[in-house]
Specification:
Two copies of one chain form a homodimer. With 246 residues, chain A is α+β, with helices and mostly antiparallel strands. Chain A is built from six helices and 13 strands. Chain B binds a DNA duplex (15 and 15 nucleotides) through residues 30-36, 61-62, 65-68, 90-91, 93, 95, 118, 120-122, 153, 173-174, 177, 209-211, 228.
DNA sequence: CCTTCCGTTAGGCTC
DNA sequence: GAGCCTAGCGGAAGG
C-alpha cells in the first residue's frame, strides 16, 4: 500500500475514532519519562478508538512501545516515510513511529459492551451462596432463586433463616450503592403485599459505598460482605478444576 | 469468513509459527492464577510467533486477557463456534476464546531483529553520576557501585566526600518515597556495622514525595534532585551524539 | 489533584 | 527452578 494512501486512511480512522491495525516495516522512537529507540523491523501497530497506541514486535506479551489512552495522534508523510506521532501531556511524552513500508492497514469500528467479570459473575456468586448458604449466616436456607417481585423485577435469592423469618437477598459483584439499597427495598415492598409481613433484607456485595451504608439502618437492610473471588474459590472447591480442563 | 476456513488458517499459522491477527465477535474465559469471563463482544485477537496470545478490546492500553509466550494453542470448530484454547503449565492456566464471527484473519511472518535501546533508566542515572560525580557535590569520589549492604541488598553507589566521609547513594528514576528513605537507612545500618561509623546518606531522584521529605532530617538523609533526562543528556555529551543517532 | 496499593503483574537477574 | 526487584509499570481506590 502506498504511504500517502495509508496516511489518508489513518487520518480518517483517527477522525472517526476507529480501531486500526497496521502491519509494516517501521522504526520507533520514544521520549518522555524515559527514552528509547528501536531500529527498522517488521511490526504490528495498533491504534485504538480511544487514542491508545501499541507497537508489538513479532514475539512477546508486552508492547515494545506504547502510548496510553487519550494521546493526540498526528500523521504525515515526509521524505517517503509515514510518520505517526502520538503525544501526551502530563507527563509530556512523545512516541514517534516511522513507517517505511505498509504491508496491510485495516480499519474497524468495534462494538464491545460486555462486562468483564473477574473471578465470578453475579450469577456465579448466586450459585456459590446456593451451594454454601452459611455464607449468608448459619441456618440460612434458600427456597427459590430468581423469585418474581411483582412489577419491580426479580429477587436474587429468597429463603428463610433459622428462626423461620423470610429472607430476601440481593447480590452485587461490585460495591453496593444507595441505588442497590433502594432497589432491594422496592422489591421487598412488592413481596410484603403478597406475604403480609416484611421479610429480612440482605444486600450481598464485596463492599458498600459510604452513602449507601448510611441508608441501611433506616430501611432495615442488612449487609454481608462477599467478594467474587471468595465465591470463585467456593465454586472451584465444589466442582474441582475438571470443568475447565476436561 | 467461514469458521472452518478460519480454523484451518489458524492451525496452519500456529504450525508455521506465524503472527496472526483476527478481528471478530467472541467470548473469552480465563482460569488460572485468577479467573475471568467476558461475554460476547467485537475484539482483536493476536497470536504471536512465540505462542503469546492477546485479546484486546476496542479501547484501553492493556489486553483484557492474554497468555504469555510459550503457551500451547489448540483450535477447533464445535457447535458453530471457533474455539481457541491457549494452555500453559506452571502455573496451570487456560485461556479459552470462543469466536462466533470472523470479520478478518490475516497471517504474517515478520522479521524483526532490531535491538531495542532504552535510555534514562536507573542504570543510566548511575552511569551519569560515575561519569560526572560533581552531580552529587564538588569533591565527591565514587569508589564502588552495587556494593553489597549485608542482607539488606545493594547500595547503588559507595564513595567518599571531600572531607573523607563515606557516602552512600541511593538512586531512583521517579520521585523518592518514604519507602526509599527507609530502604537507604536500612542499607546503611548494615554497612555501619562493618565500618564502625555512620556514612552520609544521599537519596538521588528527580523529586521527592512530601511525606518522604519530612522523614529526611529525622533519619539524617540528604536529598539531591537529579532527573533521568539530565543524566541522559550527560551521557550523550560524554560519548558524543553518534552512538545515539548513528 | 496526589498518594498508595495491587496485579493473571511481566520480565530480568541471582542463587 | 525459586526468590527478589524493577517498571515509561497501568489501574483502582482513597484522601
Amino acid at each position: 500500500m502506498r504511504l500517502e494512501e495509508a496516511a489518508e486512511k489513518l487520518k480518517e480512522g483517527i477522525r472517526s475514532r476507529s480501531l486500526m491495525v497496521l502491519v509494516g516495516l517501521m522504526e520507533v522512537f520514544y521520549e518522555g519519562r524515559a527514552s528509547s529507540s528501536l531500529g527498522e523491523g517488521e511490526r504490528l501497530l495498533i491504534i485504538k478508538q480511544d487514542g491508545s497506541v501499541l507497537v508489538h514486535r513479532p514475539t512477546g506479551y508486552e508492547p515494545v512501545n506504547w502510548q496510553p489512552p487519550g494521546s493526540m495522534i498526528d500523521v504525515a508523510v515526509r521524505d517517503n516515510e509515514l510518520v505517526i506521532e502520538a503525544r501526551r501531556l502530563s507527563p509530556e511524552e512523545i512516541l514517534r513511529i516511522t513507517v517505511k513500508k505498509v504491508y496491510s492497514l485495516e480499519t474497524y469500528r468495534l462494538e464491545d459492551s460486555a462486562e468483564f467479570a473477574m473471578y465470578a459473575t453475579e450469577e456465579e456468586m448466586k450459585r456459590a451462596i446456593l451451594l454454601e448458604p452459611s455464607l449468608i449466616e448459619e441456618g440460612f436456607k434458600p427456597i427459590e432463586d430468581e423469585r418474581r417481585a411483582g412489577r419491580a423485577g426479580f429477587v436474587d435469592i429468597f429463603g428463610v433463616d433459622s428462626s423461620g423469618n423470610i429472607v430476601v437477598i440481593e447480590i452485587k459483584r461490585r460495591n453496593a450503592t444507595s441505588e442497590d439499597v433502594k432497589q432491594l427495598v422496592s422489591y421487598v415492598r412488592e413481596i410484603e403485599g403478597e406475604l403480609g409481613r416484611r421479610p429480612r433484607m440482605i444486600l450481598v456485595a464485596p463492599g458498600i459505598q459510604k452513602s449507601a451504608s448510611k441508608m441501611l439502618a433506616a430501611h432495615g437492610v442488612e449487609f454481608r460482605c462477599l467478594s467474587p473471588r471468595k465465591c470463585h474459590e467456593i465454586l472451584r472447591r465444589g466442582r474441582g478444576l475438571d470443568e475447565f480442563l476436561g
